[in-house]
Amino acid sequence: MNIKFIRILFLSLFFLTALNFVHAQKEGDRIIAIVGNEIILESDLQYQMQMYARQNNITTMNPVIAQQIFQQMITDKIILAKAEQDSIVVKDEEVNKELDYRLKSLIQQVGSEQRIQEVYGMPLVKIRLTLKEDLVKKMMSDKLKRKKFSNPVKVSDKEVREFYTNFKDSLPPANEELEMSHIFMSRKLTEAEKQLSKSKALQILDSIKAGIDFSELSKRNSDDKGSAINGGDLGFAKKGVFVKEFDEALYKLKIDEVSDVVETEFGYHIIKLKEQKGDLVRAQHILVAFKKLESSDFETISLLNNIKDSILSGKLTFEKAALLYSQDLETNTKEGYLGFISVDKLDSNYVEELNKLQIGEISKPLKSGDDNNYGYELMKIKSKVAPHKLSLETDYERIKKYAGAIKDNKAYEAWIEELKKSIYVDIKF
């Protein structure tokens, strides 16, 4: 993974655990704990242990780790129960916005919508429905934790030095790090690419109007492979589940009516309303995803090369160019500064290119992202830090963060113990 997307890695864990799909309790599936109004089933614990084993590439589960996983599940339920007691509310638009972001981030990581649908064996809309309830609970809990720990913990110099004295032999060594800045440009969708996709969608729409079966056309043409196998069937869903443009077009249709071509961030859709039950609707769709032409990549690469030439010729500095041209809104106001990044966090292909650079040199345009959502960036090496053992002289701020994390953790544990006094917890085994 590359620099642009390092910050979204944590999202994958949410999806790996949240996709423990909502299910009815199966016969013989024991309740192993009751916390507030929530239950924990034996199958829930088994699922979490399986996920842990897969993430850590282990074949046998240590009983101590299993107990830690179970205790964490209890803690999560306690916090949720407290959030419900305190009437913590998250707005539906907040949930949908976060869900959109997390789904998009996950798709970026696994490579495509088709891949995520293949992994979980259901259309994206059903994955979305399944995730939403868990996300509401998680956001309620997170909101409560932010409210409780809104003020950052303060760590005195004395505490930092005491922490280092006590733990210096067990602190992890610092990996090799690169201090870098970048100029990022996303690969923009061109009008030519949009027109190519729209033309195909219009041809499919003409075929529907000519009487060709919608389901068959979806199976043969839709780029949403998760639903295409079922003729584009998206199942029953409530208003607000789909992206805005799709929703607006769908709810204007009558039963068995087909929409015109509808543009969304994913491409062009043709939508058919199949059924309606109260506030639930069942739709079919055909997706024509935006096509990608190599010429668009060349335009972005060429522009970055021109910027690099201007920097090398002295017409402008790298920092000024980042302010003017970089499309990474988090860093362009900081003159493209990324800070220190551990080499083990970078893709091996990136490391290979960056290792060729001396301090102060600028890379060629490097691809940043995945095949569905990417751009290119110029990297500048500002300094290099060799692997080393942590010391107060060279790594004071890093050690201070470790000390703060320990202090934070103690406060968190004390809070959980206090909550247990007011939350019903019944462990069944």
Structural class: alpha+beta
Name of the level-1 CATH class of the largest domain: Mainly Alpha
Per DSSP E runs of 2 or more residues, the count of β-strands stands at: 11
Question: How far apart are the first and last residues' alpha carbons, in Å?
Answer: 42 Å
Taken as a percent bin, the fraction of beta residues is 15-25%
Q: Compute the number of helices.
A: 15
Spatial extent as radius of gyration: 26 Å
Query: Roughly what is the average pLDDT, rounded to an integer?
Result: 87
What is the fourth-level CATH superfamily of the largest domain? Porin chaperone SurA, peptide-binding domain
What's the multimeric state? single chain
CATH topology of the largest domain: Triger factor/SurA peptide-binding fold
Integer tally of domains:
3
Largest pleated sheet: 4 strands, antiparallel
Topology of this structure?
Blueprint: H1 11-18, E1 31-35, E2 38-41, H2 42-56, H3 63-85, H4 92-110, H5 113-120, H6 124-148, H7 157-167, E3 177-186, H8 191-209, H9 214-221, H10 225-228, E4 233-238, H11 244-250, E5 262-264, E6 267-277, E7 280-289, H12 294-312, H13 318-325, E8 337-342, H14 348-354, E9 366-369, E10 374-385, H15 392-419, E11 425-427
Antiparallel strand pairs: 1-2, 1-11, 3-8, 3-10, 4-7, 5-6, 6-7, 9-10
Helix pairs in contact: 3-6, 4-6, 7-15
Describe the structure.
The chain is of the alpha+beta class and 429 residues long. It contains 15 helices and 11 strands. A hairpin with a 2-residue loop joins strand 5 and strand 6 (267-277).
